[in-house]
């Protein structure tokens, strides 16, 4: 089984993913890291050189491999839910956990993370808060469609969020069997 973490950039997937994987005795894979490794380019370079359409095609290919691979926690990119095939593959692979937070919190986290700003290009050219509001609004129904579990990641620590997910998963373990 594979647990996929989804949500807007800044929701905590990269922080919760490794902690959840450790608790479930499996590996954590960040799909954005895999896209960069397989393409030999940063996400920003892919967007600049090849465009968003090419990035989304790479994302779908990487997710196809990750979601049919060994038991793991997959931290999916914020826009991975845009393709219906990705949403269906996520749900077929196992639980899909949507980490949510308010627009203000997401904008604050993104704005405070210089690496995130350098790695991921603006999708709209607007201020961080306006972009989060617009893009998140356009994706809400897709996140709802993909999610099998929703976790509010607004004010709890990554450790607390991890424990909530583990408790909600109950007896389903990811890496517990040989």
Layout of secondary structure:
Elements: E1 2-6, H1 13-24, E2 27-30, H2 31-39, H3 43-66, E3 72-75, H4 84-93, E4 96-100, H5 103-111, H6 114-119, H7 128-146, E5 149-152, H8 158-169
Parallel strand pairs: 1-3, 1-4, 2-3, 4-5
Helix pairs in contact: 1-8, 2-3, 5-7
Report on the structure:
This protein is 57% helix and 12% strand. The protein has a 5-stranded parallel β-sheet, sandwiched between helices. The chain has one domain: Rossmann fold (3-Layer(aba) Sandwich). It is an alpha/beta fold and 178 residues long. The chain is globular, with a radius of gyration of 15 Å. Helix 1 packs across helix 8, helix 2 crosses helix 3 and helix 5 crosses helix 7.
What is the number of beta strands? 5
The CATH topology comes to Rossmann fold
Q: Major sheet, described briefly?
A: 5 strands, parallel
- CA-based gyration radius: 15 Å
Number of domains: 1
Taken in chain order, the helices and strands follow as: EHEHHEHEHHHEH
Q: Supply the CATH architecture.
A: 3-Layer(aba) Sandwich
Tag the structure with descriptive keywords.
alpha/beta, Rossmann fold, five-stranded parallel β-sheet, 8 helices, 5 strands
Summary, kept brief:
The chain is an alpha/beta fold and 178 residues long. Helix content is 57%, strand content 12%. It contains 8 helices and 5 strands; from the N terminus they run βαβααβαβαααβα.
């Amino acid at each position: 089984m594979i647990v996929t973490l989804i949500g807007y950039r800044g929701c905590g997937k990269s922080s919760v993913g490794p902690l959840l994987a450790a608790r479930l005795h499996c590996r954590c894979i960040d799909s954005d890291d895999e896209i960069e490794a397989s393409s030999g380019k940063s996400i920003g370079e892919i967007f600049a050189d090849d465009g968003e359409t090419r990035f989304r095609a790479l994302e779908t290919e990487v997710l196809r491999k990750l979601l049919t691979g060994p038991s793991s926690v997959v931290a999916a990119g914020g826009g991975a839910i845009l393709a219906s095939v990705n949403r269906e593959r996520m749900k077929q692979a196992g639980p899909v956990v949507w980490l949510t937070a308010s627009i203000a919190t997401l904008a604050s986290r993104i704005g405070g993370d210089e690496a995130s700003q350098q790695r991921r290009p603006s999708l709209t050219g607007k201020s961080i808060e306006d972009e989060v509001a617009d893009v998140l609004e356009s994706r809400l129904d897709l996140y709802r469609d993909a999610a099998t579990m929703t976790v509010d990641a607004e004010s709890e620590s990554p450790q607390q969020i991890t424990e909530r997910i583990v408790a909600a998963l109950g007896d389903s373990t990811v890496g517990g069997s040989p």
